[in-house]
Amino acid sequence: MFQYDISRSVDEIKAGAKTKYYPVELSKVLKIVKDTPGKYAVIGIPSFIMALRLLAEQDKVIKERIKFTVGLICGHQKSSKFSESLAWQVGIKPGNLKHIDFRKKLLDKPANNYGVELTGMINEKEVTIIKPTKELLGQNWGQGFFKPIASDFTDDVMNVTADITLGDAWLPEYTQDSKGNNVVVVRNPRIDDLIKEGIRTGMLNLDKVDNETIFRSQESHYRHTHDELAYRLYKKDKVNKWRPLTIVQSSNDIPFLRKKVQDLREEISTESHISYKKAVELDDLDYFKDEMEKLSKKYVLLYKLILIQNKGMFGSVKAIVKKWEL
Ligand SMILES: Cc1cc2nc3c(=O)[nH]c(=O)nc-3n(C[C@H](O)[C@H](O)[C@H](O)COP(=O)(O)OP(=O)(O)OC[C@H]3O[C@@H](n4cnc5c(N)ncnc54)[C@H](O)[C@@H]3O)c2cc1C
User: Fold this and answer.
1) Residue 311 has what pLDDT?
2) 218-236 pLDDT, tens per residue?
3) pLDDT (tens digit per residue) in 83-104
4) Given the CA of residue 170, which atom of ligand 1 is nearest to it?
5) Looking at residue 312, what is its pLDDT?
6) CB of 106 within 8 A of CB of 134?
7) Sign of the four-CA dihedral 292, 298, 302, 307
8) In DSSP terms, which residues pair with 99 in a beta bridge?
9) Residue 86 beta carbon below 6 angstroms from any ligand 1 atom
């Protein structure tokens, strides 16, 4: 449904915008870069930008032509079945989805409370349906539905080899604007100059924030991708299974309930692929929903236990009431 392409005008860049939670790959566009002299900028998630940096070390043409890399922050990737399963939940059966906007802005809602817009065929009629993500199974990113195993073995939260990194500023002080805000980390002096010029001329609206604010915007991402990667590595090492070398070292030293969260996340990701495949074979979406809802409920319960452990019974009730009020 989506593929990497080359934009040669502002209009083309705008037409290709929006976040796609969908598997893509670079081979077609890299061939164009190799065959067509010019200056290029590539946008990508951390593993893609890192791969490009390594390729540029081997390939002079790539190094010469790719002048800038723009990195997205990426919690994890999704298989194509993620889109398919969302569509099926609104009545568009597998094979009948034509387009998906993964993050349809809901203008009366905070930026992190968005919808999904799905266009496809129902009873031979083309329909477009918008659903708030909260009403769809598989949209809790912590649970990691349809996550490939590789995503659990990267340690790069901030797309550290990119010239500029962009992510979502999902912080209370920024989410109220339903149009959304980005966190931006600039590493390349030429891009830094451009951004400063943009601020000076009023084309860009940016607040200068400290490291702590950027870190806070990705707090749970750091916990999963950095801190608790140690435990996922430990589990692989314990059974002598291959895993990539990472900056994070293998360790079993994380709190008991956090280990349970990690174990359950692995189970949920694995089971989502298996039970979805079975549901398609049976032509029965409820099979997938029933299997996954069992695990999702376990996950929610585990988080309640963690809340009680951290805040005590009284504090937990207070926290839940506060969440309801929000
Ligand atoms: C799989 C995935 C997981 C993410 N996880 C997180 C996260 O945990 N935390 C966080 O803060 N942000 C995350 N992001 C990044 C974030 O969602 C936005 O992409 C980023 O903030 C820019 O959004 P925007 O709406 O401002 O960008 P837009 O103005 O829509 O621009 C986005 C640009 O990225 C390109 N693009 C979109 N999807 C992809 C893709 N899959 N591969 C390559 N290029 C793409 C578009 O073509 C466009 O040029 C994730 C993004 C993806 C794709």
Assistant:
1) 80
2) 999 999 999 999 999 999 9
3) 999 999 999 999 999 999 999 9
4) 11
5) 81
6) no
7) positive
8) 119
9) no
Residue whose CA is closest, atom 8 of ligand 1? 75
State the residue for tokens 């609206």. 205
Element (H, E) at 272: helix 256-282
- What value, to the nearest 5°, has the Cα angle with vertex 222 and ends 272 and 49? 80
Our CA dihedral for 101, 105, 109, 115, rounded to 10 degrees, sits at -10
> Is the C-beta atom of 16 inside 6 A of ligand 1?
yes
CA-CA distance, 299 to 262, in Å (whole number)?
A: 10
**Residue whose structure tokens are 């924030």:** 209
pLDDT of the residue at 234: 98
- Residue 53 dihedral angles phi and psi, to the nearest 5°: -60, -40
Residues 6+ apart with CB under 8 A from 198: 204, 206
**20 touches ligand 1 (CB under 6 Å):** yes
For residue 45, the CA-to-ligand 1 centroid distance in Å is 8
* Predicted local distance difference test score (pLDDT) of residue 310: 87
pLDDT digits (tens, 9 = 90+) for 132-157: 999 999 999 999 999 999 999 999 99
Distance 168 CA to ligand 1 centre (A): 8
Ligand 1 atom with the shortest distance to the CA of 103 = 25
